[in-house]
Amino acid sequence: MLATHGLRRAARVRGDFPGIEFEGVTRPWATVEDRVARVAAGLRALGLQRGDRVAVLSENSAAFFELYWAAPWADLIMASLNTRWAVPEMIAALQDCAATALVVDAAFAPLAEQLAKACPSVRHVIYAGSDSAAAPNGARDYEALVVENSPLADQERGGAEVVHLFYTSGTTGQSKGAMLTSDNVFFTGLMIASPFALSARTNALCVMPMFHVGAGTFLVGLTFAASGIVIARRFDAADALKTIAERRITHSVLVPAMINQMLNAPNVESYDLTCMERLIYGASPMPPALLNRAMEKMPGVGFNQGYSMTETTATGACLLPQDHQPDGPFAHRMYSVGQPIAGNDLEIRDPSGNVLPAGEVGEVCIRGPGVMAGYWNKPAETAAAVKNGWLHTGDAGKLDADGYLYIVDRIKDMIITGGENVYSAEVENAIYAHPSVAECAVIGLPDEKWGERVAAILHLKPESSLTEGDLIAHCRTMIGGYKVPRQVIFSADPLPRSGTGKILKPLLRKTYASAGKLG
Amino acid sequence: MLATHGLRRAARVRGDFPGIEFEGVTRPWATVEDRVARVAAGLRALGLQRGDRVAVLSENSAAFFELYWAAPWADLIMASLNTRWAVPEMIAALQDCAATALVVDAAFAPLAEQLAKACPSVRHVIYAGSDSAAAPNGARDYEALVVENSPLADQERGGAEVVHLFYTSGTTGQSKGAMLTSDNVFFTGLMIASPFALSARTNALCVMPMFHVGAGTFLVGLTFAASGIVIARRFDAADALKTIAERRITHSVLVPAMINQMLNAPNVESYDLTCMERLIYGASPMPPALLNRAMEKMPGVGFNQGYSMTETTATGACLLPQDHQPDGPFAHRMYSVGQPIAGNDLEIRDPSGNVLPAGEVGEVCIRGPGVMAGYWNKPAETAAAVKNGWLHTGDAGKLDADGYLYIVDRIKDMIITGGENVYSAEVENAIYAHPSVAECAVIGLPDEKWGERVAAILHLKPESSLTEGDLIAHCRTMIGGYKVPRQVIFSADPLPRSGTGKILKPLLRKTYASAGKLG
Questions:
Q1: Which one of B13, B15, B369 has the shortest CB-CB distance to A1?
Q2: What is the CB-side half-sphere exposure of residue A363 using CA atoms within 13 A?
Q3: CB distance A403–B13 less than 8 Å?
Q4: Considering only CB atoms, which chain B residues are within 8 Å of A3?
Q5: In the beta sheet, which residues pair with residue B340?
Q6: A203-206 and A415-417: which strand pairing?
Q7: Of A382, B42, B237, B387, which sits with the fewest C-beta atoms within 10 Å of its C-beta?
Q8: What is the pLDDT of residue B372?
Q9: What backbone phi and psi angles, to 5 degrees, belong to A22?
Q10: What is the pLDDT of residues B81-140, one digit of tens each?
Q11: In sequence order, what DSSP letters do the residues of B193-251 get, joined into one string?
C-alpha cells in the first residue's frame, strides 16, 4: 500500500476544503497535494535518488507537513531531527542516516553550516523559512522548489519500503532511527480513525513537535480522514487556548506537561473550549491528579489516552472517553492506558519470553501493522527489539482481567531498593497530589545500604514552600513506606525535558548520582 | 496479519460482554472464541489438512458465524454456498472448490446426501441444526465437535493465505469463488469501523444472508470492534422490526428490497426504532423514491450507503449520513454512492484503461486492502478482473468534481437502443416513482429496428392498477423519450431475485427474449 494514499484521497474527496492552516495561510487539500508534488519534483531535480534521506530540522510548519508526503511521493525517505537535541546529537543523527539534503527553518538556519560541514553526505541545504534574510549561505529556497517545478507524478513508494525515520526521543541511551514503512503509514493512518474519532468533520490542532511520531501519526490519520488541520509552530499554553477557542478546534494531541501549563494559564476560564470533542493525551505518564483536574475544567471534552511508541508508529493502546469515569465500579480504569486498539495484539511477557497471565507484571509486547521495520543501521538493536513480529517495548506493565493495560514503569526506570521493586510513576503520582508541587521526578540513586534509594527531585509552584519532612509525611499517607522517597532534592529550575516533554531522567541520574543522602 | 485477530481481540477486551445472540442464546465473546477453537480442533480431528475447504450451506446461525473464524483458526478455508442456488449450481461450486467437508443446517439437510454423492471430495457432512431428527444420514454433529474437542491453538493463518471463498452472486454469468485472504479480512475489518461507526457500543442485527460477503465483512468489522451481534436466521420484515425495537439494535445492513418490505409491513409505525443509529444499505441500487420514504419514516436514523462487491471484500465507497440531504445545494449527492472509503483508491477508466476525468462515464476500478487474491481456479477470469492491483468492477460510473461516485449501471446491463446508451437504473427510478409499482426491472430485449429496445417488467402493489399507456406517460414526465420503455410487461408474481435480493436480470432476459413487442 502507498504511503501517499491519504494525501491523494484528501485531495480527491475534499479538494476544495481547508486542509492545512499555518500562521494565517490556509490551503485546501488539492493545493496541498499540488505543492507536495512540486516539492517532490524539486527534490528530484536536485539530484536526489530513490531512497535518499532528506533530514528535517525545524519547528512545526506547513512545509514540514508537506515534506512528510513529498518524501514518499519522490521515492525518498524523510528523517526528522529532534529540535531539542544538542548539536553533537544532531550531527550523530545526520551521520547515522547519511542525509543527502537538510531542510531547516529560521530557528535552525544558524546551525545549518556547522551541521553540513560535519556531515559530508549533505549536499544540499534547503531553507524553509519566511524570513529570507535568515537563510543559510548557499541554501536552496523551499518556496522556490514549489514555484519552479512542475508537479512530479507520485513515484508510489509502497509496501515494505521505508519512508520515514523518526529518531527515538532518547530518554534511555542513544537515539535510534525507527524505520517506518509505507505500509506502517498506510495502515496506522486507517487504524487510528475509529479510536480517536477522526473524520472529515474534525478540525484539529497540532502543537506536538512534528519530529515526534506522535504528531506524525496524528497528522497522517487526519490526512487519511481528510480533516482540517491547524499547525502551530510551537506549543504555547495561551496561544493554544486562543487557537482552540477561535478556530473551533475539535481534536488535539497533547502531552501531560502541555495540559498542565494550559490549566495553569492566566484567564484559562475565559476561553470557550466547548468546541473540543477529543483531547488525546500521551507520550508520558499522566498523573491522575492532573487528569482529574483537566476533566473537571473541561467537562464536555472526551479525554482519550494514547499509549504508544515510535517503534509502533504511535499506535498501541487507547483509553476511550467512556473509560474516563472517576467514580463507580470502573474508576480504576482511569489508571490504565486502556485497551489495545483494533489491529494490535498485546501481551505481557517475562524475561524468558513467556506470556504472563492477567495481573502479573512483565514487559509489554505489541504486534501489529504499525511495528517498524527496524532501527536504521542497527541490526543488533533491531533484533533485540523486534522478535518474530513482536515489539518488545521496554515498558513494564500488566493487564487486568478485562484487557486493560496498566503501565507500571519503564523497565529500566524501576528502582530496586532493599530487594523491593518500586515504580517511579506510583511515587510521582503521590508527590503530584501535594498542592505545592509543580514538577517532580523520582529516580533511583546508588545507595550503600539499600542498593538503590528512592530519590525525588521537585520543582515547586511559585510562592509555595515545602520541607522534606512535610513531603515525606504526605507520601506516607498515600504509599507504602519502602516507596517513600529517602531523599528529596529541591530544584529552583524546572526539570530538564526532552523535545516531547518527557523529563530527562538519565540526565537527572547523572547530575545527582553523587549527591549524598541529605535527609 | 492474522484473519483471527478480531475474534481474539474481542475475547480479550470484551470477553464477558455479549458477543453473539442467536434465537434466544447469547454467548459472551470469550465463549465464542472458545467454541471456535473447539470447532477448529474438531475439523482437524476429522482429518482436514492445511488449506482444505469447508463448504457451508446454511441459513444464518451462530454456527455459521463460528465457522467464519474456525476455518482460519484451523488453517482451513471456508467456502460459503448461496442458499438460493438450484442444486446444479450448488454441485458446481462444491466441485469447483473440491470441498472436503460440507456443513448444512436443518433447511439444507435434505440436500446433503445428493450433494455429497455428486462431489466425491466431500468426505464429511456436518450437521449444524438444532433438530437432531433432521440430521442427514452419517453426518457428524456440529455441537459434538464443540463439546468433544479441546480448544486448538490458533494455527495463525495469515498474510496472503486464502481464508474465505465467497461465490459471486451470479447476476451475470457463472458463479466464481472470490478468494479472500487473511490480510483482506484483517484490513477490511479495520477499514469499515470508522465509515460505518462500529464500536464496542454497537449492537448490530445481521439479517443479510451470511453466504454473502456484505454480511461477512459487516460481521468481521463488528467482531474487530467487539460489538454485540444479533443474528437472525433469515429476513422477515416483521421479525426484523420487532428485533430492532426489542433488542435495541443500533446498526444493521439491509438491501433496498428489505427496507421496502419493512416500510410496507403492517403496523410499521408501532415499532420504536429510535435506537437505530446507522442503517447501512447496499448490494443493489437504492431507488431514490424508496430512500426518501425510508428517511421520512425513520427520521433519527443515520442512513449510510455502502457500494462494494465480493471482489473487494465488501469495501468500496460509502455515502455518509451527512451526505443524505434531500434539500439544499448538495441534494444531488443522495443519488451517488458516496466517496471511496479511506484505504481505497478509485478511478474511472475507459475500455483502454485510461483514467477518465470527472464527469465522464467509464468502468469503476478500485485498488485497496480488500481486493481479492483472485477467483479460485480461474486464472483467466482473475487476470481480466484484477490488473496491477486494480479491480475492474464491471460497473459503469462517473465521479463528480467533489469525488462522489455515481453508478450509472452494470456495464453489461446498459441498453444500447438506436445508438443511444440507456442505463436501466435511471429508467427504473422513474418507474418506481409511480405509486402503483411494487417492483420493476428494466432490461434490453432484442429488437429488429432498434438493436435493443427498453423493456420494463413490473409487479404492481396489491389492489392497484396501471396501463402501459399510463406508465409511459408517467415516464415521459421524468426521462428522455429514448429512455422510455417501448415494452411494458406486467408480472403477476414478484420478480425473481438472487439470494441477496438482486433482481435476476439474466433470467428475465432469457424469459422474455422472444416476447414480441406488445405495445
A1: B369
A2: 17
A3: yes
A4: none
A5: B317
A6: unpaired
A7: B387
A8: 98
A9: -145, 120
A10: 988 787 888 999 999 999 999 999 999 999 999 999 999 999 999 999 988 899 999 999
A11: TTTTT--TT-EEEE-S-TTSHHHHHHHHHHHHTT-EEEEPSS--HHHHHHHHHHTT--E
pLDDT in tens, A414-437: 787 776 667 787 788 889 889 899
Residues 6 or more apart in contact with residue A233 via CB below 8 angstroms? A22, A23, A59, A60, A61
Contact between A191 and B189 using a beta-carbon 8 Å cutoff: no
Distance from CA of B191 to the nearest CA of A (A): 6
CA distance B318 to B316: 7
What CA–CA distance (Å, rounded) separates B323 from B231?
Answer: 29
Q: CA nearest B27: which of B14, B42, B40?
A: B14
Q: How far is residue B49's CA from residue B287's CA, in Å, rounded to a whole number?
A: 47
3-state secondary structure string across B337-394? CCEECCCCEEEEECCCCCECCCCCCEEEEEECCCCCCEECCCHHHHHHHEECCEEEEE
For residue B87, what are the contacts with CB-CB under 8 A and spacing of at least 6?
Answer: B111, B114, B115
Residue A187 is nearest to which of B187, B345, B401, comparing CB atoms?
B187
Report the chain B residue with the minimal C-alpha distance to residue A7: B342
A314-371 pLDDT, tens digit per residue, is 999 999 999 999 889 999 998 899 999 999 999 999 888 999 999 998 899 999 999 9
| CB-CB contact of B410 with B309 (8 Å) | no
Written as one string, the DSSP assignment of A199-211 is -TT-EEEE-S-TT
Which has more pLDDT, A122 or B461? A122
DSSP code, position B265: S
Cα–Cα distance, B515 to B519 (Å, whole number): 11
Residues 6+ apart with CB under 8 A from B396: B361, B362, B363, B364, B407, B408, B409, B410, B411, B414, B423
pLDDT in tens, B478-518: 877 888 999 999 999 999 887 667 788 888 888 888 765 44
Q: At CB < 8 Å, which residues of chain B contact A?
A: 1, 5-6, 8-9, 12-16, 186-187, 189-191, 193-194, 198-199, 201, 224-225, 322, 339-340, 342-343, 345, 368-369, 401-403
pLDDT in tens, A456-489: 999 999 889 999 999 999 998 887 788 899 999 9
A51 by DSSP, 3-state: which?
A: coil
Contact B342 A199 (CB under 8 A): no
A vs B: CB pairs below 8 A: 84
Residue with the larger pLDDT of the pair A450 and A82? A82
Query: Cβ of B438: how many Cβ atoms within 10 Å?
Result: 16
Distance from CA of A15 to the nearest CA of B (A): 7
Report yes or no: A276 and A197 within 8 Å, Cβ to Cβ: no
- Grid cell in block for residue A205: 490542532
CB distance B283 to B501 below 8 Å: yes
Instruction: Give the amino acid at B125.
Output: V
Residue A369 is nearest to which of B1, B15, B198, comparing CB atoms?
A: B1
